[in-house]
Amino acid sequence: MVAPPWGWAMSSGWAPGVSAGAVPGRGGAASPAHPSVPAVDVPFQEYVEQLLKPQDPARLGSDTLYFFGDNNFTEWGPLFQHYVPPPFRIPGTSPAYSFGIAGSGSGVPFHWHGPGFSEVIFGRKRWFLYPPDKTPHFHPNETTLAWLQHTYPTLPPAQRPLECTLRPGEVLYFPDRWWHATLNLDTSVFISTFLG
User: Could you give the angle at the alpha carbon of 78 between the alpha carbons of 73 and 84, nearest 5°?
Assistant: First the structure.
């Protein structure tokens, strides 16, 4: 985890209410917090006004919408032009940015993919990570909040994940094929950079 010296060009005045007005009508993917359920196209303004709420602990991952990924770069280009990415690179890779906003208690369950990093703009995001050879115990349709409340307390210390909490302006690098899950401790605005 790194607290960057560079800064985020959009962070000044960037809060969820301002974000909604900054990109009126922009579409995006409201993805269920479940790996096999397809994303739903939702206008950003509609997501912020109607769906951006704290996580219901009883709600399944397939019924939880999370605004992240699949940003149309033609529509979102003006927003991404203001992004000053952290100066981290892996030789031979190209960055792909993904903007997100989510309510408190929401998150994505354990999954893995290629390397990248995530930066929090507003709010706080808790991360849980396991190396590739240590598959976490979880149900794919259980939200991270439910996992934290029910499974996490039963884990022996040797089976607990690596953890950290990102605050505005902090960045976490996630290595290739590392298992990770996230939990938004507040309403959070964030951007992830996938290196492929």
Answer: 95
User: Which CATH architecture fits 16-195?
Assistant: Sandwich (2.60)
For the whole model, what pTM was predicted? Answer: 0.83
| Residue 162 CB neighbours (<10 A) | 12
Instruction: Let me know: does 192 contact 100? Beta carbons within 8 Å.
Output: yes
Tell me: the pLDDT tens digits for 89-138? 889 988 888 888 999 999 989 999 999 999 999 999 999 999 999 999 99
Amino acid at 113: H
Provide the residue count of the chain. Answer: 196
Question: How far is 12 from 111, CA to CA, in rounded Å?
Answer: 32
Domain ranges of the chain: 16-195
Q: Look over the chain and give the mean of its residue pLDDT values, rounded to a whole number.
A: 82
State which amino acid sits at residue 194. F
